[in-house]
Amino acid sequence: MDLGLRGKRAIVCAASKGLGRACAIALANEGVDVVINGRNADLLERTAAEIRDATGVQVVPVAGDITTEEGRQAALAACPAPDILVNNAGGPPTGDFRNWSRDEWIAALDANMLTPIALIRAVIDGMISRRFGRIVNITSGAVKSPIPELGLSNGARAGLTGFVAGLARQVARHNVTINNLLPGPFLTDRLDHTLGHVAQVSGRSYEEVKAERTRSNPTGRFGDPAEFGNACAFLCAASSGFIVGQNLLLDGGAFNATMG
Ligand code: NAP
Questions:
Q1: Residues of the chain with pLDDT under 70
Q2: Sequence-separated (6 or more) residues with CB below 8 Å from residue 142
Q3: CB burial class (10 A; 0-12, 13-18, 19+) of residue 128?
Q4: How many Å lie between the centroid of ligand 1 and the Cα of residue 18?
Q5: Which pLDDT belongs to residue 167?
Q6: CA of 40 to the centre of ligand 1 (A)
Q7: Residue 209 has what pLDDT?
Q8: Which atom of ligand 1 is nearest to the CA of 141?
Q9: Does the Cβ of 164 fall within 6 Å of ligand 1?
């Protein structure tokens, strides 16, 4: 299936590894030129080279912290008129809400709510005037089914979800779509870290926790980041303009409901 994206330009935030990287690869496979962002410049450069070599598209690495104004401006300077924006940032730390200060809450809101909103604000009017835009926010399955140890994520991402639900309906008539992708357990460094935390606080081994989580998923496995990337590319397709304001859960069916 040709997604009709050849020659389009994308900014993919937090894309040197994990789910962001997978989205950048899937878009590059469709012929999209990508600007990728991440804080570790060496890792980002390596990822850019891999994607470039594998796909032949233009891949521009822009190192920086996307949760800062400086980091966002650098990414936007490298791609001032993107057709596609994939919002992503590291998830907040795990923990007990009794220990979180106001500063920790503000950091979570900055990373997982206010940063995507700032980037959307910077690019959306250009997308409207060009009559094409695809915005995908990487959020979390925690939006539908809260994860106890990830209260900062549960809260901040719910805020973003509420905001974009309204905005998506205001821009859809211009062929600009905003949708959210909600990862369940995908095998990335982030998941490894979360499993490690659960093992530590429950006094069990990492292997035991991982095996239990794997078994309990209806698919009997964790998600492959490439599967996530492909879903992102599909939402960005030229023919996906009628998919508006959706929250697509990619969790192997772990969320138990008759309807999403
Ligand atoms: P990951 O494997 O840890 O990768 C995170 C990526 O984001 C790295 O490239 C990292 O590079 C970059 N990054 C982190 N903070 C950044 C910042 N402030 N500015 C720029 N780049 C930044 O994580 P992941 O599993 O792909 O997760 C991506 C998002 O999905 C996270 O918000 C996570 O909470 C959420 N999520 C993941 C899962 C899962 O199962 N994997 C499930 C639910 C939700 P640098 O460190 O070099 O900056």
A1: none
A2: 150, 153, 154, 157
A3: middle
A4: 6
A5: 98
A6: 12
A7: 95
A8: 43
A9: no
From 42, 88, 119, 228, mutation site for ligand 1 pocket: most ligand atoms within 8 A of C-beta: 88
18-52 burial: b if 16+ Cβ within 10 Å, else e: bbbbbbbbbbbbbbbbbbbbbbeeeebbebbeebb
- pLDDT at position 260: 73
pLDDT in tens, 151-207: 999 999 999 999 999 999 999 999 999 999 999 999 999 899 889 988 999 999 999
Q: How far is the CA of 129 from the centre of ligand 1 (A)?
A: 31
pTM of the model: 0.97
What is the reported pLDDT for 74? Answer: 98
Both tokens of 99, joined, read 């220990």
| Beta bridge pairs of residue 35 | 11, 60
Is the C-beta atom of 63 inside 6 A of ligand 1?
Answer: no
